[in-house]
Every structure is written in C-alpha cells, then in structure tokens.
C-alpha cells in the first residue's frame, strides 16, 4: 500500500506517468471497442453493433430525460464518449494493480482526483460555453440573478460545488474500491490462512466494484446532461 | 499515508496529467465521432427511415387492399343482383311462355272442337240431303211401282209401309 506515483517533470509540468499510461490504455480500449463494433454495419444489427446501438439509445434516453432532443442532440457524442471512457477506466483497476519498483503503474485513471476533476471542469466549462452560445450572453448572465439578485453568491458557489462533487464523487467511489481491493489482497501477506479467507470478500467486492463502476459512469454522464440542460434550457 | 489520502497525486498539481487527460479525451471524442458514432448513427438513422418507409408502404398497400376489397364487394353485390334479375326474368318469361302455350293449346282445342262440330253439322246436312234425295227417288220408285202395279188400297198401303220400313232400315 505504500506505493509511490511515478511522477516526472517535463517542460515544467508534472506528469504522473501512471496516469498517462492508463489514460492512453483506456482511450485505446474505448476506441477499439467502438471502432471494431462499427466496422461491419448492417441494417440488421448483430453482436457488437447491437450492443453499441443499445448504448447509443441508453445515452439518448439520458439526454431526453433532461432536455428536449432539439438542443440535446448535439451532446450525444459527448455523452457516449464520457460513458464509455469512464466505464472502461473504472473497470481497468479491478482485475489487478501493477506496481513496479514501488511505483504504482496499473490502476484506474479515475482513481485519481486530478483526472476526475479535469473531466468535471471540462463538463462545467462546456455547460457555460453552451449556455452563452445557445441562449446569448445576456440570458446566460441573467440566470445568475434568478429568482432574485440575492441568489448571486449562492449561484456562484453552486457552480464550484457542482464541479467538485461531480469530480470527487467519481474519484471517491473508484479510489475507495481500489483501496479495499488492495487491502483484501494485502491479507495474503499476513499468512496463507488469512489470504484464503480473504478471497471470498475479494470476489464479492470485485463484483460490487463492477456495479459501482457502471453506476458511477452512468451518474457522471447523467449529471453532465443535467448541468448542460440547466444551462441551455429555456424553461428555467 | 499521504498517498492514501490523495491517491497517486502526491503533493502539488499534476498539470501534465490535466493537460494529457483533456487532450486524450478530446482526441478520443473526435476520433470516435469520425470513426464510430458517425457511421453508427448514420445506419441507425437509415434504419429509422427504412422502417418509416416500410410502415408507410404497408399503410398504402393496406389502403389499396381495402379499396380493392370494397370494389370486389360492390361487384359481387352487383353480380348477385344481376343474377337474381336474370333468374327473375327467366322465370317470368317461362311463365309467360307457359301461359302462351296453354292459351294456344286451348285455342287449338277450341278450334279443333269447332271444326269437328262444323264437320258433324255438315255431315248431317249432307246426310239429310242424301236422305232427302233418296226419299225422293224412293218416292219416285214407289210411285212408279204403284203405277206399274195396280194394287188395292190396302196392299198399296202395305206396300208403302214396307218400302218405308225398308228405306228406314237401309239407312
């Protein structure tokens, strides 16, 4: 558990190479799944195409539940990529963790607050961008003073709170899951009896982590659409 | 312990990670839009259009079939009515013909009867005429016989009676 992060400084920026590796791996896996599933597209879908179409319909359902399709349609690509990227990222840390020279290399990229907060900030910034673009700067600015002017500080705090909770919720869930997995695996160091006894909760917790990972990916996508809808919808 | 609290991010902000994650995500999104989501949504849209067209086509053919059915029913009804009219006509014609035949035969019978009656009458006429002629010649004959034979009154009477008898039986 005393793993260090492989941090290297390059051009004045700190790079956690483990994150860089895992982000690349996640992106590659998502890209391969999506591209391989859409190589042989047909009117009668089968196998992977069917699965991906189900994902598309799922994200469409999320978007439709928060805003009308006329404004929400443009966020479909964003929602799909977010959902699949976060889900794959959450799953990556489950089967094993690879530590090399006391540096932790293989883990979920989403078990790092830097990564999740980056995604959260990106989503919130996008929501502000689309708020200005779709409603105009004036209507966008007026939203901060509704229902009356006294709400301005609250609204300002809300934006930061949204960003923090969105990022930290994902990070906390995944990181906690990996910590517990690590602790259960660590039982094996305490002796063979404890190790064998630890297998059962390990299996249970891994199953639960798959569930949590899927749920968190869904929640992140859902909240992304909620925040976007909050900014771009007229009926508020 | 610090690594436990903050995960892998030990001290400071990993600006490189942030940048890398952002770039990776944006690149991933753009690539997927071009290579995966675009084609996938294209085919979904295409299928949707296809299904819409199919439904419309089915609707149209159903309507057409319904129209056909309606005309068929109409025609069937018409044909049935025509058949009924034809049968009715035939029946009426048959009755009329039968009536005519009966009428004609009745007339024929009347005519035959009439002519038979006429024949009988003329035959009788003829017979009477013949009889009359016969009687006349008989009378002449009797007269000549009477003249030829001188008979007394009684035998003359008897003779006449005999002849008359004879003539009546001969007839």
For the termini of chain A, the CA-CA separation is 48 Å
Secondary-structure element string of chain A: EEHHHHEEHHHH
Structural domains of chain B: how many: 1
Largest beta sheet of chain A: what is the strand line-up? 1-2
Rg calculated over all Cα atoms of chain B: 65 Å
General description of the model:
Chain A: Belongs to the ATPase A chain family. Chain A: It is a multi-pass membrane protein. Chain A: It comes from Fictibacillus enclensis. The complex is a heterodimer of chains A (236) and B (171). Chain A has 236 residues and is mainly alpha-helical. Chain A has one domain (7-232). Chain A has eight helices and four strands; from the N terminus they run ββααααββαααα. In chain A, the strands form two sheets. Chain A has a two-stranded antiparallel ribbon with strand order 1-2. Chain A has a two-stranded antiparallel ribbon with strand order 3-4. In chain A, helix 2 packs across helix 4 (76-92) and helix 5 (113-135) packs antiparallel against helix 7 (152-186). The longest helix of chain A has 41 residues, at 192-232. The radius of gyration of chain A is 21 Å and the shape is globular. The mean pLDDT of chain A is 83. By secondary structure, chain B is mainly α. Chain B has one domain (37-170). Chain B is 92% helix and 0% strand. Chain B contains three helices and no strands. Chain B has helices spanning 2-6, 15-148, 153-170. In chain B, helix 2 (15-148) packs antiparallel against helix 3. The longest helix of chain B has 134 residues, at 15-148. Residues 1-10 of chain B have low confidence and may be disordered. The chains are: A mainly alpha (236), B mainly alpha (171). Chains A and B meet through strand 2, helix 1, helix 2, helix 4 and helix 5 of A and helix 1 and helix 2 of B.
């Amino acid at each position: 558990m005393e793993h260090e992060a492989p941090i290297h400084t390059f051009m004045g920026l700190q790079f956690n190479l483990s994150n860089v590796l895992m982000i690349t791996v996640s992106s590659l896996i998502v890209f391969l799944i999506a591209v391989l599933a859409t190589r042989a597209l047909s009117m009668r879908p089968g196998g992977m195409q069917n699965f991906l179409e189900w994902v598309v319909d799922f994200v469409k359902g999320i978007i439709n539940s928060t805003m009308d399709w006329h404004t929400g349609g443009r966020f479909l690509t964003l929602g799909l990529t977010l959902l699949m990227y976060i889900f794959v990222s959450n799953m990556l840390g489950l089967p094993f963790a690879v530590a090399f020279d006391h540096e932790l290399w293989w883990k979920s990229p989403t078990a790092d607050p830097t990564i999740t907060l980056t995604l959260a900030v990106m989503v919130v910034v996008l929501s502000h961008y689309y708020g200005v673009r779709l409603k105009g700067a004036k209507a966008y600015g007026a939203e901060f003073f509704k229902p009356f002017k006294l709400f301005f500080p609250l609204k300002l705090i809300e934006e930061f709170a949204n960003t923090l909770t969105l990022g930290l919720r994902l990070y906390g869930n995944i990181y906690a899951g990996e910590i517990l997995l690590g602790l259960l695996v660590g039982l094996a160091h305490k002796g063979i009896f404890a190790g064998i006894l630890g297998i059962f909760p390990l299996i249970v917790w891994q199953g639960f982590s798959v569930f949590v990972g899927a749920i968190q990916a869904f929640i992140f996508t859902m909240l992304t659409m909620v925040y976007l809808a909050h900014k771009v919808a007229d009926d508020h | 312990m610090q690594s436990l609290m903050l995960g892998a991010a030990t001290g400071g902000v990993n600006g490189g990670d942030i940048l890398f994650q952002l770039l990776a995500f944006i690149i991933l999104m753009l690539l997927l839009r071009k290579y995966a989501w675009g084609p996938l949504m294209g085919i979904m849209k295409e299928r949707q259009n296809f299904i819409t067209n199919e439904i419309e086509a089915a609707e149209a053919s159903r309507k057409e079939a319904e129209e056909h059915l309606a005309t068929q029913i109409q025609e069937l009804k018409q044909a049935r009515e025509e058949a009924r009219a034809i049968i009715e006509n035939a029946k009426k014609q048959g009755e009329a013909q039968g009536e005519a035949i009966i009428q004609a035969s009745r007339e024929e019978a009347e005519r035959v009867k009439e002519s038979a009656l006429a024949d009988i009458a003329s035959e009788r006429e003829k017979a009477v005429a013949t009889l009359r002629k016969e009687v006349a010649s008989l009378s002449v004959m009797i007269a000549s016989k009477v003249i030829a034979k001188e008979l007394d009154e009684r035998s003359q009477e008897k003779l006449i009676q005999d002849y008359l008898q004879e003539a009546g039986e001969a007839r």
